[in-house]
Design brief:
12% strand; alpha/beta
C-alpha cells in the first residue's frame, strides 16, 4: 500500500501555515523562527496549540488559539494547488492496481476540502487522520496505528512524506519511505537521504 502525506506532499500547503504562524506570532510580538517551525511541523491541531501556548507563555486557551488559526487559514484549502505530477502519479499507481491511502496531520475538514476540490477522493481507500488518533506523525506509534487501521502490515506500506521527522518515525515503524522535497523545509534537505529509502525533488521522478 502507498501511504501519502497530504500537506506539501500532494498539495502545496506548507506556505499556508507558515503565513498563519507568522501572522499569529506577530500579533503577540514574536518572530517566526526555525525552532518554532520545527516544533510545530506536522503536529495535530490540539498538540500544536499546547506547544504554542507554552512556547509563547500565553494565557489564551488552546481552543481560542485553534479558532484563530482556523480563521486565519479560512478557505485556503479550497484554493490550494496540487503539487506537480500528483494527479499523474496517483493515476499511474491506480492503473497498476496499487492500494492507496492518506495519512495526514491536517485538520479533517481541510483535508476533505482539498481532496474533493481536486477530485482526488476516489483514488484513496481511506484517509487516516492523526487528529483522530490523537497522536503526532513524528512518532513510531502513529505509523503502527495507521497501518493497523488500514489493515496492512507496516512493512507492506510505502510512505511519501515531506517531513524528516515523519519519515524517521515511519522508518522506525518498518515502512519503506520516500522523502519528498518541499521548499519550506529546504534547510533539512541534506538530512532526508540518510533517513529515507529514497529522496525525490518532484513526484514526477516516480513516473
Amino acid at each position: 500500500m502507498y501511504l501519502f502525506d497530504l500537506d506539501s506532499t500532494l498539495i502545496d500547503s506548507n506556505g499556508i501555515w507558515a503565513d498563519v504562524d507568522r501572522t499569529f506570532l506577530s500579533r503577540r510580538g514574536f518572530s517566526y523562527t526555525r525552532e518554532y517551525r520545527d516544533g510545530m511541523a506536522h503536529m495535530i491541531f490540539p498538540l500544536a496549540a499546547e506547544f504554542t501556548r507554552e512556547y509563547c507563555h500565553l494565557d489564551e486557551s488552546c481552543e481560542a488559539i485553534m479558532a484563530e488559526w482556523m480563521e486565519l487559514a479560512k478557505d485556503s484549502y479550497a484554493h490550494v494547488a496540487l503539487k506537480p505530477y500528483a494527479r499523474e502519479l496517483l493515476e499511474r499507481l491506480r492503473e497498476k492496481g496499487e492500494r492507496l491511502a492518506v495519512f495526514t496531520s491536517a485538520v479533517p475538514e481541510h483535508c476533505d476540502t482539498a481532496l474533493a476540490v481536486h477530485g482526488l477522493t476516489p483514488y484513496f481507500e481511506r484517509v487516516v487522520y492523526a487528529h483522530e488518533l490523537g497522536i503526532n506523525k513524528s512518532t513510531r506509534e502513529a505509523f503502527l496505528r495507521a497501518a493497523e487501521k488500514l489493515g496492512v502490515a507496516p512493512e507492506d506500506c510505502t510512505l511519501l512524506d515531506d517531513s524528516v521527522r515523519s519519515c524517521r518515525a515511519a522508518k522506525e515503524a518498518g515502512l519503506t519511505v520516500i522523502g519528498v522535497y518541499d521548499a519550506v523545509f529546504a534547510d533539512v534537505e541534506t538530512e532526508m537521504p540518510g533517513v529515507c529509502d529514497r529522496f525525490i525533488h518532484s513526484l514526477g521522478e516516480l513516473l
